[in-house]
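quick one if you have a minute, typing this from the bus. below you get a single protein, a line of residues and a line of whole numbers that encode the local backbone shape. could you go over both lines and see whether the tokens make sense for that sequence. anything you notice is useful, everything is just below.
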Amino acid sequence: MRDLCLSYGETQHVLKGYADADGLMAEDWRTILGYAFLIDGGAMSWSSKQQEIILLSIMESEYIIVMHSMKEGL
């Protein structure tokens, strides 16, 4: 099974990851965190959820989403 892989028509198998945090100015001050990983343009892993804790800065929420997305990427 090591020789098999998921393919979307490309042969390069390029992994790209995107992460973002948004919504700090919402009424409840809870940020929405999300990330997505794509191989050759096809989504293979993604997540979007509202953070359970209240964050006081957008930089703090960016650090949290980067940590979660890097754990998923590894």
Observations:
- The first strand starts at residue 15 and ends at 22.
- Residues 34 and 48 are 4 Å apart (CA to CA).
